[in-house]
Each structure stands twice: as structure tokens, then as C-alpha cells.
Amino acid sequence: MHDYLGAQLHSGPSQEPETISLFPPLPISPAAASPEAAASPAASSLGTPTSADITTTMLSEFNALKLLLNERADATQSLITKNSVAIAEVRAEVQENSNQLNALKLTLDQTCGELLLLKDRVVDLETQSSAVTKTVTVHASRLSLLESYSRRWNLILRGLEEKDQQDVRGEAIRVLQRVLPQSRDLLPDVVDTVHRLGPRRPDTTRGIIIQFARRHVRDEIWHAAKNSTFLKINDLKLAEDLTAEDREKRRLLWPLVEKARKDAFFRGSRAFVMEQRYFHLNGKVPHKQQQQQRQEKSWTQDLPGS
For 139-171, what is each residue's pLDDT tens digit? Predict the structure, then answer.
């Protein structure tokens, strides 16, 4: 390098000092120096850097920078690799979760479909159950009426002493003959089946149920038994064969009958008091109907053109 600025300073002594301090001279390169100074080892020992020293320093700094960049690049590459693995794992987990959600959605759709089918079946079953309940109620009512009606051919004899090898039918017929003497010869043919009620128990006399083949004979005996002296003397009693439902209805109607006992009587599960019919319906207050109106209605229905 040439020191052009230094040459100008030497040639112009009138240059101001401030200008010289603002533009200091560049260092003289070893090539521009005198051959003696370049060849002299004392010049390098005085601290003046040579081009080889500068090149060595630059190479050393470049190598250090290169090593630093390589280390940083390796660290960055390692982080990128780890992040890539982590991202791949997260992506796999997300995909697995997505598959599980899809499977869950499919299961929920199937469950919803099955629930809809079950709902329809429940509605159908409720409809069928309602219809069956109505049918069962009707059949139960009709069965109760049939049972009550069939028992109107029966009478129960209570108080007859119970013995071993006893002819229950013969003794029952003899009692009935004393109650209704005018039908004495008819009773053996009218009385159908006779047997004790329930299992035998100690210190207990079981009742005897008597089934008649003719209803009107049974009714005659029943009415005659109410004022029978023979039954009262022998501590015997004839009673109607009632169902549990009829007995419960009678229990509810009994206070009314007891109040007007002289003018009242039972017929089946109904009570008749002063020509008014009372019957108990579904555990509610007894209803009543004029017997005369009912008879007039039945007569008018039998008339032609009615």
C-alpha cells in the first residue's frame, strides 16, 4: 500500500494540524518499506504485524467461527430432529384420537338407532299393555260375576258336628228336610254335591257347602231358614256362599242395612232397603236405584215396539 496521504502531508507544510489528526496515515505495508527494513528481523520483533501474521489470525478466527457455527448447526439440527420426532408422535396420537372419536361416533350412532328402535318397541308394548290391562280388567270383572252367579246355587251349613266316617251328604239332607218339610221327598234328588270346607283342624268345626241342582229349591230353603226354629234350637245356621269381593261389599253396606234392619235384606252382593237398591262400586260411596223404576224399565223393554 502506498501512503498517499503521508506524501501530501510532507509536501505541504502549511497544512493545519486539525486536518492531519482527522485523517491519520495508514500503516505502511512491508512491501512498501525499504528492502533493509523488510529483511531485517528486528523490524518484526518491534511489533509490526506481517501479512502472514494477519492471515494466520484471520484463519484462526475463521476456524473458531466455523467451529462455533458447526456446533450451533449441530445443536439446531438435534433440536429439529427431536422436534420432528415429537411432532410425529403428536401427529400419531392425534390420528389415534381421531380414529377413536370416529369409532365412538359410530358407536353412538348405532346406540341412538337402537334406542329409537327400543323407544318404538316400548311405545308398542305400552299400547299392548294398556289393551291387555283393559282386557284383564274386563275378564276379571266377568269372572267375578260368573263366580258370584255360580255360587247362588250353594248354601253353607255351619254348626253341624264333625265326626269320623261321617255321611255328610245324608246328614245335610236331613237338616234341610227339617227346614223345608214340604219338599222332604224332593231334596235327595235336588241336593247335588256336599262336602266340608277346607282342611280339618282341631277344635274347629268346618262348614258344609251344599250345591243344589235347582235354584228355586235353594231359594225356598234359604228364605225358610231365616225363621227356622229347628236351626235355632240346634245351634245351626245356613248362610249364602259369597265370594271375597261380595263379602267385602257386604261389609261396606252393613251399616246401612243395620240402620234399617227391619225393612232391609240382602240379595247377592246388593242390599235392598225400603224398596231401594244399594250396591258398592269400586270402594266408593254406595249408589242407589229405585227397585220399582228398575222393574218398570224391564217391563217396558219386554213390550213390543219398545
Answer: 998 998 999 999 999 999 999 998 888 899 999
For 84-112, letters b (16+ CB in 10 Å) and e give: eeeeeeeeeeeeeeeeeeeeeeeeeeeee
Q: How many helices (H) and strands (E) does the chain have?
A: 11, 8
Region label for 221, one of left (φ > 0), alpha (ψ between -120 and 50) or beta (otherwise): alpha
Q: Which amino acid is at 288?
A: K
Q: What's the sign of the alpha-carbon dihedral 26, 31, 37, 42?
A: positive
Q: Do residues 200 and 206 make contact, with C-beta atoms less than 8 angstroms apart?
A: yes
- HEC letters along 160-193: CCCCCCCCHHHHHHHHHHHHCHHHCCCHHHHEEE
Q: Are strands 208-212 and 287-290 parallel, antiparallel or unpaired?
A: unpaired
Residues 6+ apart with CB under 8 A from 129: none
Tell me the three cell numbers of residue 82. 427431536
Give the C-alpha separation, 306 to 39, whole Å: 162
In the numeric block, which cell numbers belong to residue 270?
Answer: 246388593
The pLDDT tens digits of the residues spanning 163-219 come to: 888 899 999 999 999 999 999 999 999 999 999 998 988 888 899 999 999 999 999
